[in-house]
Amino acid sequence: MACYGVVHLLLAYLALRVAFGGGEQADQKGALQEAGSTAFGQVLLWVLALGLVAFGLWQFLMAATGYTWVSGGKRTRKRLGAGARGVVVIALGVSAFGLATGTGGGGSSNQAQQEFTAELLRLPAGPALVVLAAVAVLAVAVAAGVKGVRQTFLEDLDATGLPGKRKRWVGWLGTTGYLAKGVVFAVTAILLGYAGFNADANQAGGLDAALKTLAAQPFGVVLLTVVALGLAAFGAYCFAAAWAHKR
């Protein structure tokens, strides 16, 4: 989970560079490439690869047997979320392994989103399916925002590891981070929906396109800087959650 936090801190750094005119690949692979460019890049990539795969496997285990401290539908939702998170994190770990070994690491988030959209558009009622996918991503965005505002993520943390003032800081970091992720997911959903309405896969985009779309808006520098700080806050929250998460 700490490695997942490092990825978000690097994402925040790339987003800030985009906000002030940089042309970097501002997505998860870009963050891993940024890690590899440091003086200890190869070592850091191997640490991130091993850590992300371990985190992903733990999420799969949580999806199968975890969240016993909640019951009913909430437990099911948390387990489904853990399973989805496990898929994403394992994919990041595989990308890190590819970069560490020089065998690749997958394409950008924009390329992956466009390929996914193109495959959907080839199906019967393809544009409608793309719009439905956009609605699903928008639902994820809303869920992230609600989770941040209601601070339900604190239910997953051991209160004995976060006494008093420290818990308030973790709550603030988590709220800020989840709201920032909600904004990014929402922009991604808008791009995907636009691609569906126009039956044009090239108009879809992933995290990189979402951040650059924010930068292109009026007051884009301010808006993207706020989102970048939110992503950094989520990275910091991951460190706290790694310390105090319930097993």
UniProtKB/TrEMBL annotation:
Keywords for this protein: Membrane, Transmembrane, Transmembrane helix
Ranges of residues in domain DUF1206: 2-65, 80-150, 177-244
Keyword Membrane among UniProt keywords: yes
Membrane spanning stretches: 45-70, 82-105, 125-149, 170-197, 217-244
InterPro entries hit by this protein: DUF1206
Keyword Electron transport included in the entry's annotation: no
Protein name as catalogued: DUF1206 domain-containing protein
Organism expressing this protein natively: Amycolatopsis minnesotensis
